[in-house]
Structures are given as structure tokens and as C-alpha cells.
Amino acid sequence: MDEARGTEASGSSTDPDDPAFPARRAPRCRSLDALDAQVVRCRACPRLVAWREEVAATKRAAFRDWEYWGRPVPGFGPPDAALAVVGLAPAAHGGNRTGRMFTGDASGDFLFAALHAVGLASQAEATHAGDGLELRGVRLAAPVHCAPPDNKPTPRERDNCRPWLAAELELLSPGLRTVVVLGAFGWQALLPVLGAAGWQVPRPRPKFGHGVQVTLAASDEGRAPLHLLGCYHPSQRNTSTGRLTLAMLVEVFREAARLSGL
């Protein structure tokens, strides 16, 4: 056995099956491109790996001619984004199929229609990774990068994946001004990351709610305060029942754009 393979077998940072792979690799990334390249290699959560690959193999009848992505889905958007949007995890037949966040499912259709209405996306629809969609000053991120069964990651899976989000926000931090959080899961997952990344999170921690706004002071001199906005997740359940309307989502992004200087 050569030295490199022996090191991997003993739990090195280069072994994507190692549960500690995200924690070891994410802090070493010096650019979002480098981070994304490591994210797509990750196999740290066996349940998620098995599920995403099973879905990619069995497919949905409507997409039987697709070659599913079937890997972790990286963030999407420019490296100098002033606004980050944090969701939950890729959809089994959305991001897990197309390889791009919020692309190819009803939630993404709703999200991109709102971003386009505010001028933050070049088009209102997202069908596949090569469809020409560009985001303007916005980066899509997620606490969990693999599609989970029933859209429910476990706390351990969330924590395993946390270093990727922490590194992503750190790389964005020079220009980051606002984060829109879609849903309570993302809110709860994000607050500890922001605290560790250099912003002061109030205690008790602010509770999630649609339209909630919190401004986090920076812990370090030279870093700008961060505006945190809560928004219901554009899941089919929320949009079909009217809990979240397109007008409500547009209003959130209009405010986020204002706060971000976009």
C-alpha cells in the first residue's frame, strides 16, 4: 500500500468517507471554487449517500431519461455576493437530479421567479445547470448538501455538514451584508455558524419567523454588520396553501436587496 492510500485508510482529511472530512477539508479552502470541488466529493454521511444514490439510480418516471447528479450539491452564485440565501437541502428530484441548488423543482420555480422579479436573477425559471441562469449579487447556500429522505436531515448530518456552510460564509464575508433564511431548519442551523464566523448572535437567540429581521454586529473591526431576514420556505406545502405567496417572497427579497445595496 502506498503512503497516500495508507493515510486515507487511517482517516486522513483526503478520505471523503471519513465523517470528519468536512471539518478537515472546508477550512483549507481558499476560494468558493475550491470549496465546491471538495463539497461534491463528500461521503461523510452514509445514510445520505445511500439515499441520494438510490434516488439517482431508480429515478422518477418523469425523469427516466435524465442522468441524475446523485452527489452533494454545491452552492450557486458569484463569489462577491452581498446577499446569501440559506435553505435546507437539495430536493431528491430537483438539485439531486440537476446538480444545482433549487433547480428543477417547484420550490426553485417559486424562488427564482421572486429573485427575477427583484432583478436578482437573469431569468425566472431554472431547469438545468446549463440553462443560462445567472444570479446577481446572490449566493444560494444550504446547511445540508445532500438530498435527505423525507426532506429531514438528522442533527448529526446537519452538524457533519456545518463546516461547509461555515467556510462558505467566511469566504463571502468581505462583501456579505444580508442573509435570507428560508425556514426554521435553516435558521436554527445558521445561527451557530454565524456566531463562529465573526458576528455577534444575541442571547437568547432570536426566534425564526416570516419577516423577522435581526442585525448582527461584527465581532471583528473592519467587518460590516450582517442583516438576517427570516422567510417561510418556498416548499409546495407552503406555497399551495398560501402560507407563502409570491408577493410575500418578492417583498422579502426587495428588502434584502435594499439592505445589501443591490
Q: What are the segments in which pLDDT stays under 50 over at least 5 consecutive residues?
A: 1-11
Structural class: alpha/beta
Q: Cα-atom Rg, whole angstroms?
A: 18 Å
Mean pLDDT: 93
Largest sheet: 5 strands, mixed
Helix fraction, binned, reads 25-40%
How many E strands? 5
Mass-distribution shape: globular
SS summary, helix count: 10
Query: Secondary-structure element sequence?
Result: HHHHEHHEHEHEEHH
Percentage beta strand: 5-15%
> How is the largest sheet built, in terms of strand order?
2-1-3-5-4
What is the terminal separation in angstroms?
54 Å
InterPro entries: UDG_Type-4/5, UdgB-like, Uracil-DNA_glycosylase-like, Uracil-DNA_glycosylase-like_sf
Region (Disordered): 1-24
Protein name: Type-5 uracil-DNA glycosylase
Domain Uracil-DNA glycosylase-like: 74-253
Task: Present the secondary structure layout.
Blueprint: H1 3-9, H2 21-25, H3 32-39, H4 46-58, E1 83-86, H5 95-98, H6 106-117, E2 138-141, H7 155-172, E3 178-182, H8 184-197, E4 213-216, E5 226-231, H9 236-240, H10 246-260
Parallel strand pairs: 1-2, 1-3, 3-5
Antiparallel strand pairs: 4-5
